[in-house]
Amino acid sequence: MKYYLISGEASGDLHGSHLIAALKKQDAMGQFRAWGGDLMEEKGAKLVKHFRDLAYMGFWEVVSHLPTILKNISFCKKDILEYDPDVIIYIDYPGFNLRIAQWAKSKGFKNHYYISPQVWAWKENRVHKIKQCIDALYVILPFEKTFFEEKHQFKVHYVGHPLMDVIPNHPKNKTFLSSNLLEENKPLIALLPGSRMQEIKKMLPLFVEVAAKFPNHQFVIAAAPSIPPDYYHQLIETSPLKIIYGATYDLLQHSSAALVTSGTATLETALFKVPQLVCYRSSYLSYWIAKKILNLKYISLVNLIVDSKVVLELIQGECTPKRLEVELTSLLNSKNNSLNKGYQKILSLLGSAGTSEKIAHLIYTAISKK
Asked: Which domains does the chain have, with CATH numbers?
């Protein structure tokens, strides 16, 4: 069978790589072509476009890059026609993917969507498009099944969260500190400023300023694989912060706390049971538009899943160096009993491991019938 996968972010590359590995177990002769990143390529996919050239954050940023986005859409359609896959698998990245899916449906392709667009947060009218052009939707958050099936009468597959496949079984790296020249007796603070250049540019200088207030702690940046080291060095300037690639989970395992830009990283940090502050800043125009149209009580996956304030979210005007200093001090000095209870509840809600295998089986079974 021929599989065509489209993802546009680092998290999609991660989940897509696990899905490719699982599909290969179902279909040893499977061929894979993908929009993604290094991880999907390592699993054997022929990479069409790298997500570092696709990930635009915020409303104004998307508008300003619209000509490039439209060119990518046109190129993607042409590439799909030439490849002629048995199934197209969309991974999150809804603005782009739903446009392609609507077109692909009209051309007779089978559309399977993994990691639902967050239509429960905004653009709920997209549900109608999903119902029209998606043959199978695989959701990873427990409340999404209720949203689609009870509110919109659209059958979906709840498969659990893919992070449960990797984080609970992540091995302890006993040489992490020494191999990265980190001090054994100085507590670590993990800095996760995001995976896109725009958000890193907004958040990292702020984190650098906060780190200077804690001389008795080591602050370490978990670098995104698609961002070159020079970009980080320009932003941290003369700060002694360490930048580490390809070891985010090892870093979290050894950290006493974390400053995390909102996104999948908030959930990853929670699953490692690391106390965290969720931080987010964007352009004022993007933030103003988001406030007008988003239908959310929280911005972090941690709080959204539990539907309560498990972790503190510092957004836009609240996300200042002084406020971060105060809240991080409090976090480091607290026993965090309520935080730990919230983290435990997340574990109970997300289900067991095996997400990629479940989806691979469902996809392969569906297209084999065809």
From this structure: 2-166+353-369 (3.40.50.2000), 176-349 (3.40.50.2000)
